[in-house]
Amino acid sequence: MCPSKSSCPFIPLLVIVAFAVACDSPQRPNLDTTPDGVYALDRFRVVVSERQLKISGADGRVLFVTPLDDSRPNSPSLAWRRASVAVTFASGAFLFDETAEPWQLQGGLQATSNGDDVLTLRAPGLSGTISRVAPGILRIDWLADDTSASRIIQSFVCTADDAFFGTGARVHGTEHRGETIPNWVSEQGVGKRRKTKPSDFFPLIGDVHDSYMPIPFVLSSRGYGVLIDNPQRSIFRFCTDDASERWSIEVWDRRLSLYVIDGPSPLDVLSRLSTLTGRPPMLPRWAFAPWFDALHGPDEVLRVAEQIRAAKIPGSLIWTEDWIGAKLNAFGYHLTYQWIADTTLYPDLAGLAQTLHAKGFKFLVYFNSFIEKGLAQWDEALREGYTIKGADGNPLIFPGVFFQDTTLPDLTQGRAVEWMKSFFDAALDLGVDGWMADYGEWLPTTAQFEDGRSGFDVHNIYPLLWQRANREALDAKRPDGDFVYFARSGWSGTAGLAPVIWAGDQQTEFGGLDGMASVIPLIVNSGLSGIPIMTHDIGGYSSIGVPPTSRELYFRWAALGAWSSIMRTHHGALDQKNWAWNEDAETIAMFRQHATTHMRLFPYRYSIARDAHELGWPMMRHLLLHFPEDRNVYRIGDQFMLGPSFIVAPILEEGARERSVYLPAGYWFAFEGGARLEGGQIHSVRAELDEIPVFVRAGALIPMLRELPDTLAPSTEGGIVDGRNLDGAALTVRVYLGAEGRFRMYDDTRFHLSYADDPLEIPGIVVDQQRLESCANAASRDCVVVDGPRQLTVRLSSRPALSLVATEGETVRFALTVDGPVTRELELVIHW
After folding, report:
1. Per-residue pLDDT band at 36 (split at 50, 70, 90)
2. DSSP assignment, residue 763?
3. Among candidates 503, 494, 533, which has minimal Cα distance to 278?
4. pLDDT score of 655 more than 60
5. Domain 37-275 identical in fold to domain 631-701
6. For 779-824, how does the pLDDT look when each residue is reduced to its tens digit (9 = 90+)?
7. Which fold has domain 631-701?
8. Domain ranges in the chain?
9. What angle do CA 580, 577, 504 make, to 5 degrees?
């Protein structure tokens, strides 16, 4: 999990995750066992018989049960074996050629209770424990007696109803039944596809399961999750064709360790998961206004900054990745991977940062973990012994991104970490406010570390070591948390170290497994795995074998960006050919429209960011999290929820102006207006090129900024409205009738809608026992405006709390209370 106990609340040395998986079977497996031994561990009920292990939750739900037979050679119930593997490494991609002995099958399971918190297990050739970790969390550990063992597998029964979610940043779908999914950090490849054999198009094109951020966690439709705590390579097999009645966890080690995390709701599981893997910090407010990238020296960076302000597009951040220098090559405009400023391209970086700060822009730059020959850090790293080593004890050198000699810092070595952090400190001293922390996937398995571990054992947690170094440097220099860095690689524990994750390098195309359409499954699968805050490159990045970003693609991607956790532009590899936000007047108008919506929703988005920080809940959510009983949502990978209230359904096909949207049971409202829709069915909706289908759930309470600042960062330049006075700023709150609703804002203002019935006509409004009359003019307060037959606006003067009742005659149609610590003007826009 986390590379140090200081990074997470607690994580034992090894943790393996067992999860509940789903499989089709001609006959429903029997989940009952003969309770030879029944044990209570916290809220769990553990039943152990000679041939079977079963664990149930406090409410009697069977979480999982092991199979009674070992008739499946690739998925035995519990077994170990010896194996060797030859690994081919190139360009951050890996091939595994495994030679394995048959599984050593185990029977005769025995259990002994050591008290209330630990159950000792024994099977021939294996010893194990089941222990209580925290309320709702168990840990299972198995260890093979044979010291030459290098694989352990445990399998569990699948039923026809089981479904499986999570497993990190994956693109193949959002429900994983039938899939074999390896957990190994790697480049995801360009133009991913479902390969018939791993070596096809290696290393350029990725396999469908390759991932920058695999998370060895599975969330079961039964309301529990399993987290694997082994850092080594592991494999999930979810009810595959050769063993459809079971799912399994295989770990490439002598030890298998899992956490079993009960819910019963999926959000409960994610909250408990985050106590193990960490939660993101509460990001500074300025991180939730649009981010812009700018390149090619200070004059161009400042031109972009001026253009943003002149166009009245809200924005709080500019990031400049070529501060370290860049050059054109066959693949586009690419960086020189040094860790210091290119003083030819940026002769006064500190002055640039100061000017941007005055204009209300925070300033981000770029780092990665590569040490390349010929650049500033190479000679010192080799001379001082800061690098990873080969078997011969010399620096391990491999071909880098563009085939130059490259190595990596040994991040288990304290001196090397402090050396690298000195470069971060120098950048912060120049006035930067954070950076992209790129890569982390390229550690060769042959590497040797100062602490005695091998590259094979460290590979998957190298992203955590990289992220911890970044975080420690920023925490030390900015203890008030006024920073952001964002990463792309990850493992269990990333959520507690990296404030923001981005979805990596997509192709500049609509569909496929690597275009715009892949962004939603990447993000919602990660959210179902404990990664709460993610973003993506608007417009895509790579253009290998596909055209540069088109105008239509940019329009559609910008709309998706506006409804994401963080709205962030990227120039892409072909920065002079890709369409961009400032390409022409119509594109600027489109981007301003979406950026304005993004900024107006700051109170809502910052509130769900607080949920990410306090509860581990993702901001962008799979529909499963709020509709776990609706099996229709399980495989939806082209729409998502933003917090608890919105369903977002972007257009993901070139040339399309319509799409189908599934709305779960209940009433739904189009955010941009229109008739109320009935849920539990599919609707066909239309969206022009500058539009995106977004729907609001009945009972939703949506706080929005009434007045729009230019930036959420502080500014000292005249004429720029910044966000320093947001506390107490006037709000528009959209209220959607049709169900009861609650919402807690980031400042602890609480809204509660008590719903009785739709008004038959425009109701009378009583606020704090005062009946409101119609507003005389636009400046009037404590009055009502009728906006239409099913919408009215209540304008209220400043107050910290209120009680509103809507009546028709003697009948109360609905009531709304607001209670908070802040006095502010409110405008309630009520829809039904």
Report:
1. low
2. P
3. 494
4. yes
5. yes
6. 999 999 999 999 999 999 999 999 999 999 989 999 999 999 999 9
7. Immunoglobulin-like (2.60.40)
8. 37-275, 278-502, 631-701, 727-831
9. 70
User: Is the pLDDT reported for residue 61 higher than 80?
Assistant: yes
Interatomic CA distance for residues 828 and 732, integer angstroms: 6
Assigned token pair, 664: 């779960």
The single-letter code of the amino acid at 755 is Y
- Each residue of 600-640: pLDDT tens digit? 999 999 999 999 999 999 999 999 999 999 999 999 999 99
Give the model confidence (pLDDT) of 143-158 as tens digits.
999 999 999 999 999 9
Quote the CA–CA distance of 304 and 308 in Å, as a whole number: 6
Element (H, E) at 705: strand 701-705
Longest dimension (CA), the chain: 88
Distances from the Cα of 299 to the Cαs of 145, 199, 351, 356, in angstroms? 66, 46, 12, 12
Upper half-sphere CA count for residue 396 (Cβ side, 13 Å): 22
Top pLDDT among 35 and 636 is at: 636
CA angle 77, 79, 81 (to 5 degrees): 150
The secondary structure of 59-93 as a DSSP string is TS-EEEE--S----TTS-SEEEE-EEEEEEEETTE
Q: How far is CA 456 from the centre of its chain?
A: 26
Secondary structure of residue 613 in the 3-state scheme: helix
- Strand-pairing partners, residue 750, are 744, 819
Measured between alpha carbons, how far is 303 from 241 in angstroms, rounded to an integer?
58
Place of tokens 């020189």: 336
Tokens (6 digits) for 514: 């690597």
Give domain 37-275's CATH number out of 1.10.3210.10, 2.60.40.1220, 2.60.40.1760, 1.10.287.3510.
Answer: 2.60.40.1760
- Computed over every residue of the chain, the mean pLDDT equals 94
Angle between helices 462-477 and 414-429 (to 10 degrees): 50
CATH number of 278-502: 3.20.20.80
For the cut 60, the answer to whether the pLDDT of residue 6 exceeds it is: no
Residue 333 has pLDDT above 90, yes or no: no
**Burial track 14-31 (b if 16+ CB lie within 10 A, e otherwise):** bbbbbbbbbbebeeebee
SS3 track for 187-254: CCCCCCECCCCCCCCCCCCCECCCECCEEEEEEECCCEEEEECCCCCEEEEECCHHHCCEEEEEECCC
Residue 555 identity (one-letter amino acid):
F
Q: Containing H/E element for 31?
A: none
Helix-strand-coil percent breakdown of the chain, rounded to 5? 20, 35, 50
Tokens (6 digits) for 581 = 């936000």
Contact 830, 735 (CB under 8 A): yes
| pLDDT of residue 105 exceeding 60 | yes
Q: What is the 3-state secondary structure (H, E, C) of 508-574?
A: CCCCCCCCHHHHHHHHHHHHCCCCCCEECCECCCECCCCCCCCHHHHHHHHHHHHCCCCCEECCCCC
Q: How far apart are CA 312 and CA 475, in angstroms?
A: 33
Q: How confident is the model at residue 13 (pLDDT cuts 50, 70, 90)?
A: very low
Q: Are 485 and 502 in contact (CB under 8 A)?
A: no
What tens digit of pLDDT does each residue of 569-581 get? 999 999 999 999 9
DSSP string, 359-385: TT-EEEEEEES-EETTSHHHHHHHHHT
pLDDT digits (tens, 9 = 90+) for 341-372: 999 999 999 999 999 999 999 999 999 999 99
Question: Could you give the CA distance from residue 732 to residue 453 in angstroms, rounded to a whole number?
Answer: 56
Q: What is the pTM of this model?
A: 0.94
